[in-house]
């Protein structure tokens, strides 16, 4: 098996990279059967984004903190662990952003697309789903749309629901909603097209973020699943995303 080794810039990850190169060697990702990513969840997301054109699986080993998308680190039997790993396929979200200055931007998100206030005043958002107005005005610190894989990340911190990994739904969750005060968000079909329009955009500036790729001074954001893009993540048997999502609900 040809393995490409990639590591974050932390000392722990770089030390692990050196050890693994001595034991197993390494090839360029373009020649590899699989990528081993050393770091935390943030580095795993970076690795998936940067190498999505290769369509090869990524096996992460935790050299960070939380490591929800990672396997435990061990230098022993790496090739066999990768061979025995279970594959999970994730489709990202695509956000299309229009800004106050007329510029347009596109970004992909494996976890979530979030809109956040960028000034001292609360944001005002209008929400449309599949061309139908669903909420004429949401006054809040922000809102997000997440995939099942991202439902335990920012979405969970904002009191959104944890979604089963194989569910064909997305979670729409508010961040510190002021009005409607009791709005609890929504579960939407995976293929929904969700649009946020920023009301009073210059007075109440908003930024949009897709897996830490940020755009400022947003006027509108349209989000939909990109099922033609398939991110392949490898997990040790019995420790896949489905099991982790269940465990998280009983923690």
Provide the residue-averaged pLDDT: 95
Principal-axes geometry comes out as elongated
Spatial separation of the terminal alpha carbons:
37 Å
Unreliable residue stretches: none
Identify the CATH homologous superfamily of the largest domain: Probable inorganic polyphosphate/atp-NAD kinase, domain 2
- Please provide the count of β strands: 17
Helix content: 10-25%
Structural class: alpha+beta
Would you identify the CATH architecture of the largest domain? Sandwich
Q: What letter string, H or E per element, gives the SSE order?
A: EHEHEHEEEEEEEHEEEEEEEH
Give the CATH level 1 class of the largest domain: Mainly Beta
Number of helices: 5
- Identify the strand order in the major beta sheet: 6-5-16-13-8-9
Q: How many domains would you count in the coordinates?
A: 2
Cα radius of gyration in angstroms: 19 Å
Summarize the main sheet. Answer: 6 strands, antiparallel
Give me the CATH fold name of the largest domain: Tumour Suppressor Smad4
